[in-house]
Amino acid sequence: MWKNWFIAISALFILLGCKPKLSPITTIEKGGNLNENFCDTHPWKDDTVFHTTVENFQFEQIEGIVISRKFKYGKKFVACIVSGIGLENGFVGVFISDSLGQKWSPCFCGKAEIASSYEILLPDLNFDGNPDILVDGSDGGVHGNSFSMAFLYNPKLKTFQRYPSLDLPNLSVDHQHKQIRARHYSSICGGSRKSLYNWQNKRLTLVGEAIVQGCFGDSATLEWTLHGNKKTTSDSIFINTNQAWSKFNNLLWKGFDREEEINNSHR
User: Within 13 A of 94's CA, how many CA atoms are on the CB side?
Assistant: First the structure.
């Protein structure tokens, strides 16, 4: 008899142990539940799901501003939200829903850099044929610099993944040459930099950089570096500022990946 009780109790424990784990559920209503501390105040996990009654995924918010973009990706819906413009505790969230668009799972929820304005774009950043997500935030400064937050689509996992290597200043995509461009303007007299990247073995690789330093009316220095063919080549020229800026604007985007044009440019 005791043996039968022992078997029954053991079987019960086994059944309880095999009970499927339920995902934590958070309900989001339109209004003040979504705020600048959204990522910190919710126990986000990889399998967290939340319900929303807002069809367009556009939330009202008392503090800060919410910018969102919702689009269909295959049989699912994707939403990207940027909140808290100008606030130190703003956030960026990327979410994927089911085919009904009512149950959402977070791909990413984290802190956003302070910006005066944001734009959510869907370029193909790694040229694999799948649109990715790019959050572009402008600093609103004199030079008009912006920062980027990139999320690449993983076709195997069918989700978006954060890719910090693409967090480049003033990022733009050259689809014709399958290259990524980045630039940063510090000041007319300071060091302004342009960089060129491509994809090698599914990794973002720096191809070359160009830096110009100098003020108008003075002489300037134009420096550049090439990366490729298992070697790095660097050179510079000391010329009039106007000429340096002209070469700076054309050198990198028009054939910077071709070493022959670089060598001819300072003869």
Answer: 22
How many other C-beta atoms can be found within 10 angstroms of the C-beta atom of residue 165?
A: 13
- CA 250 to mean position of chain CA atoms: 26
Structure tokens at 228: 């490729």
Give residue-wise pLDDT tens across range 215-251. Answer: 555 556 666 666 665 555 565 666 565 565 566 556 6
Range with the lowest mean pLDDT among 39-43, 61-65, 131-135, 137-141?
A: 61-65
10 Å Cβ neighbour count for 267? Answer: 5
Q: Virtual CA dihedral for 9, 15, 18, 20, nearest 10 degrees?
A: -130
**Predicted confidence band of residue 181 (pLDDT cuts 50, 70, 90):** confident
**3-state SS string over the chain?**
CHHHHHHHHHHHHHHHHCCCCCCCEEEECCCCCCCCCHHHHCCCCCCCEEEECCCCCCCCCCCCCEEEEEEEECCEEEEEEEECCCCCCCEEEEEEECCCCCEEEEEEEEECCCCCEEEEECCCCCCCCCCCEEEEEECCCCCCCEEEEEEEEECCCCEEEECHHHCCCCCEEECCCCEEEEEECCCCCCCEEEEEEEEECCEEEEEEEEEEECCCCCEEEEEEEEEECCEEEEEEEEEEHHHHHHHHHHHCCCCCCCHHHHHHCCC
Whole-prediction pTM? 0.70
Amino acid identity of residue 265, one-letter, is S
What span, in angstroms and rounded, lies between the C-alpha atoms of 32 and 55?
17
Supply the pLDDT for residue 154: 92
